[in-house]
Design goal:
There is one protein chain. With 43 residues, the chain is of the alpha+beta class. The chain contains 2 helices and 2 strands; from the N terminus they run E-E-H-H. The longest helix is centred in the last third of the chain and has 8 residues.
Length: 43
């Protein structure tokens, strides 16, 4: 039987980019990602 390991969702603005870059909280894709119910989407 396969069981999916529990993972802690990361906040979009905590995502690390190369060269010490960070996503802005004002980024439209970050704002859209906050609207998604990720717990319902992935499980």
């Amino acid at each position: 039987m396969y069981r999916k390991a529990e993972s802690v969702p990361r906040e979009p603005f905590d995502f690390e980019l190369p060269f010490e870059g960070r996503l802005s909280k004002d980024n439209r894709w970050v704002k859209m990602a906050e609207l998604i119910l990720w717990s319902e989407f992935c499980c």
